[in-house]
Amino acid sequence: MRTVARRDGGGWVLNGTKMWITNGSRAGVAVVWAKSDDGAIRGFLVPAGTEGFHTVDIKDKLSLVASTTSELVFEDCRLGEDALLPAVSTLRGPLACLSEARYGIVWGAVGAARACLEAALEYSASRVQFGHPIATRQLVQQELVEMHVAVNNGLLLASRIGRLKDRGRATAEHISYGKFSNVRMATDVARRARALLGANGITLEYPVMRHLVNLESVLTYEGTHQIHALVLGRALTGHPAFE
User: Fold this and answer.
1) 51, 50, 5: which is closest to 30 by C-alpha?
2) Mean pLDDT of the chain
3) Cβ atoms of residues 104 and 180 within 8 Å
4) Quick count: other Cβ atoms within 10 Å of Cβ 125?
5) Residue 12 to residues 36, 55, 134: CA-CA distances in angstroms?
6) By the 8 A CB rule, do 196 and 168 touch?
7) Helix and strand counts by DSSP (H, E) for the chain
8) CA angle at 238 for the pair 235 and 240, rounded to the nearest 5°
9) What tens digit of pLDDT does each residue of 164-205 get?
10) What is the mean pLDDT of residues 86-106?
């Protein structure tokens, strides 16, 4: 939280930068969290084109290449009082937004894993070795079954969290559980699928390698795998271990 906001007459002045912001250069409005001069965490709506605000796209990515990712730069960016989100003064505000994004990942990981499983099923049925499709081989069937069970367990988990969310009963720990489990599951399924496809698994003819490199990023964004482990560890033991 290095971006700072200070009061200036009837408005605010922002200074600092934000990294790895999805659609940063495409969005019409940026939602920016900053530490104010009274120590509170404040949220601001900053329209694109505001004087003192510009973006720089991050180039040469090997993962999530279809997503525009940007750095946001604030240099004496002046905002009116109406830019302030009035009901937020702590980290609870931005963390509440994270829970929504993390919930989406719980489902998105299942989708990526299912695409990899379907590609592996189709490939193993058509790839012939020694006169037979590789789908007839015991070791290949073992891999496919492991992947199938993992994907459907992830789907059941996402559905359960969704039902809790619909009832207003989903907690941050539930969502961390889903993100922790399903992203790990999807990464494992993608790696198994890549191996079943052999060298074909690294080509863009199949979706597997694309999902695999993207999932490597998903492991760390919206809270790293380790941070979600600590969230769950605190829930299990009652002791925070973040320091």
Assistant:
1) 50
2) 94
3) no
4) 12
5) 9, 20, 65
6) no
7) 5, 9
8) 85
9) 999 999 999 999 999 999 999 999 999 999 999 999 999 999
10) 84
| DSSP for residue 134 | G
Q: Order of strands, edge to edge, in the sheet holding 4-8? A: 53-57, 69-80, 11-22, 4-8, 29-36, 41-47, 84-85
Gap between the Cα atoms of 73 and 193, Å rounded:
41
59-68 contacts, C-beta under 8 A, 24 or more apart: 62/213, 63/213, 63/214, 63/216, 63/217, 64/214, 64/217, 67/22, 67/23, 68/22, 68/23, 68/24, 68/25, 68/26
Instruction: Return the closest-CA partner of residue 76 out of 133, 6, 135.
Output: 6
Bridge partners of 72, per DSSP, are 18, 55
Catalytic residue of the set 71, 100, 222, 243: 222
Active site residue 222: yes
**What single letter denotes the amino acid at residue 67?**
S
